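Suppose you are handed a protein chain with no further information: no name, no annotation, nothing but its sequence. What can you learn? This example shows the usual starting point.
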Amino acid sequence: MSASVVDVLASELREAILDGELEPGRRLREVELAHAHGAARHSVRAALRALAAERLVTLERHVGARVAVLDGAAGRALYELRTALEVEAAHLALRRHDGRLPEAVHRAAGDLAAVCRHPDARWSRVSRAHDALHAAIVAAAGSARIAEAHAAIGAETRLFLLQVPRHWSFEDLADDHLRLVAGLEDRGPVALREHLDASAAALLGDAAGVSVGRGR
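A reasonable first move is to predict its three-dimensional structure. Written in structure tokens, the prediction is:
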């Protein structure tokens, strides 16, 4: 079955947002989007509602639609949920694989490092490889419910992580995640908690109580 006009439009807008082409806070005017994508305004409106359900867009009465801005309380709330899901997933993954992580996780870490170190590295590609690594850690837990909940915040997390290139080089990102995987097998889920705590502290501009300078 072919995708509907609304699905295609939502997909195009989603990728433009997550690739940083439509920056956080940007007004999304129905007339302009309809003209740019050759779609009817009611289709644009439906696509924006779908993206609002993913928390990528905010809809305000009498104001219209904007690309969501994730900072402050919203960013912290997202990181609290992400940490709860990923740290528990890491705990289950290590317990179910005798203290090691499956090959899929190591492969995903290697893929991320390769993408980061490519001469033509771009954030759109790096972010997908980054997502794949964290998703692989979650998948290793063997919990369909945790994986489902983690996938549900995937787009919102990618939006928040658009800030990463302002804080770390791709080389740092590669090294950091290789250390994360090694640390999980060496020290357990605490390595992932520290990784995520450091990321939240840096991206939210709140280093209180966190001494580690890296982590995504």
